[in-house]
C-alpha cells in the first residue's frame, strides 16, 4: 500500500509541475495571440476588434496572472480547453482533438504494440538460439533500420510502393475522400489500405530497439540460477524459455514500452506529416505553424498526461509481476 501511495504522490506532483510549465512557457514564447490573429486577418481587423475577439474566445491578458493560472488548471481538468485561433478559427479545441485522436490511436498505437510484440518474440528466439540464423541476421538488420529517420523511410516506401507501382498503395490521407465514413467493408478496407505505409514506417524504424534489448535481457536471464534449476528439474524447453526466462527478461522492457505507449498519443509527427495523416501529431504541427496557443497547450497537456499515466500503470504492473520492486532499498 505504501508503494502505491508513493507512486500516486509522485504522479500528482509530476503532473502539477508539467501543467505549470505548460501554462508559463507560452507566456515567454515570442509573439502573442493578437499578433497571430492580426497576421491571419492581414491587418483588416482593428486592434480593438481583435481584442474583443480574443476576449470572446476566453483570452483575458489583463487579468491577474494568479487568477489566470487557477482558471487554467480548472479548465484543463474540466475539459474546457478553449477554441482554436489557428486555421480552424473558432472551433473548440476539444472537437479538433476528438476528431484526430482515434486516427492516431488506431495507427500509431497498433503499430507500436505490434513492434513491441514482434520485437520481443524475435529477441527471445534469437537469445534462446544464440548464434543461429535468427540471431545472426534479424537483430543486425533491424538495428540498422531503427537508426533510419522516420521521414526517410516513409518517403522511400512512398517511392517504391506508390510512385513506382502507379498507386498500388495510397501515399496520403486516412481514407479515400470519395467514400463516406461508415462501418461498410469498403470504407474499412480503404482505412486499412491507407494505413499500411505509415504503419510500416513506424514498424520498420522501431522494432530493432525491442529486438536488441529483449535479446540482451534474455541472454542475461538465461545465466541465472533459477533457469539452471528449471533445466535440472527436467522442464520442457518451451516452459523454461517463456515461463522462466522470457517472463523475467520482459520486466526491464516494461518501462520503455510504457513510455512508448504514452508517446502514442502525440503520434509520430514526422510520419503523420509525410503521409498527410490527420492525427494528433499532424494537428500539433499545424498548431505550431499557425501559432494556435490554445490548441498547443491542450495537446502538450494531453501528451504529458498520457506519458505519466502509462508510466504509472507500468510501475503497478512491475510491482505486481516482481515483488522485489515493492521492497524498500
From TrEMBL:
The chain crosses the membrane at residues 7-25, 103-128, 140-164, 191-212, 254-275, 295-321. It is a multi-pass membrane protein. Its main location: membrane. It comes from the Bacteria. Keywords: Cell membrane, Membrane, Transmembrane, Transmembrane helix, Transport. InterPro entries: MetI-like, MetI-like_sf. Residues 101-314 form the ABC transmembrane type-1 domain. The keyword Cell membrane applies. Signal peptide: none annotated. The keyword Membrane applies. It is found in: Cell membrane. Pfam families: BPD_transp_1. Belongs to the binding-protein-dependent transport system permease family. This is ABC transporter permease. It comes from Rugosimonospora acidiphila. The lineage of its organism: Bacteria, Bacillati, Actinomycetota, Actinomycetes, Micromonosporales.
